[in-house]
Every structure is written in C-alpha cells, then in structure tokens.
Request: fold
Amino acid sequence: MTEQVVLVHGIRTSATMWRAQVAHLEAAGFPVTAVDLPGHGSRLGEDFTLHEALHTIDAAVRAAAERGPVLLVGHSMGGLLSLAYVGGEEPPPVAGLIAASCSALPRGAALRAYRLLATALDALPGRGAWLTERVLDATIPAETRADFGAGGYALDAQDTALRSLSALDLTTAVARIRIPLWFVNGQFDQLRTHEALFRRLAPHAEVIVVPRTSHLVTAMRPQVFNAVLGLALAVVRGRS
Reply:
C-alpha cells in the first residue's frame, strides 16, 4: 500500500500554503490531501471551533488510512492541532507525524502578545494586507510567495482560533505520542520557545532546525522541507 500524506495548514492561511509540497509529493507518486480548517480557505464563512478543526483532520486521516499508512504534517496552528490529535486518548491511524513551526505551548503571555499583535495588524488600513504582502516579499522566494494568500486570509477567524488553542493539553498529548515524530523549526522561528520541553516529553522525536529560516519554513526553503518529507516517508515505509 502506498504511503499517504495529509497536510494541515497554519492560522490565517489555507491549504494553498502547501502548493510546493503537494507538487513535490504528487511528482514522486504519493497521494496527498491538504485540508482547509474551519474559517479558512474554502471555508472562510464558517466559525472556527476546536471540535470541527480536529474533526476535519480526523476525517482526512481516516479516509487516507483506507489506502495506506498516513504521514500527518502540520504547520504552526496545524502542527499544534496535529499533536493534540495524535496524542489523544485513543491513538488515530497515523503512522508518522511532522510538527513544523509549533514547538511552543499556546498559553500565557506569549499567546496574549500574539493575539495583541494580530489585533493591531487587523486594525490597520486594509486590515494590514499591505504589511503582510511586504513581509512576504522580503522573506519568501518568488516561487512560493503567492501560496500563503492564494486561498484568502482568515482574518475573521484568527482571534477565535488563537484563543481556542489555549484549551489544548499539549504536554499530555506530546508525552503520549509513540509513533515516529519530527519537530521541524526554522532557525529564527519565534515559536521555538518550548522546544526543549517537547524534546523531554517525546525523547524519541527528531528535532530538525532549518538554517536561515524563520516561522514560514515550508515556503522559505521548500526544497529542504520536501527533503524532510522524503525522510519521514522512508521511515513510515520501513515500519509498514
């Protein structure tokens, strides 16, 4: 059976953020599903809830698992949700997990500061779109620059989503995970604050730090991230 890949995007963006990875995986012959979480992408009109977000991941995983072993890949908010999902009381049919740009517990002062920053950006003219585009222009290569916004920005869902993440019991979830696990972080990622804690909670996990990148590691150095996908798929294949 062929390995399957399920991709879960981060906050504000959508399934389109994975275009470089989808193209790479499809060219290599791996079936791939990139989901849109509630309130994001093709589901911009919906309310974001943790229940529906986790249900979206579960539905995609279980559909893929009927065809082969599943590698689940989440970025930022999608990575946090994927950690919570895989580390639930009843292990789902996931054979491997890549949690990218999410080695931080979404709580306390850091979460409040992130929400404040998002609110301030949203209050700017045009809801800060010009600043977002300028940042992307300065940090993302041309070939992946448009991918983050191609599905629209989930501006109306972001504060609810951020607030909801504080309800996740990630320390318990990460400690429960027994499948192959990779934490992938950019060298300058602001969400590496609890990387050492995650290492202790999941000592079998591999931590991969990508040089010269920040939070948007999948788009800043897509070839490197695609190589990590290849590594994870090889491990999953070897265990099936």
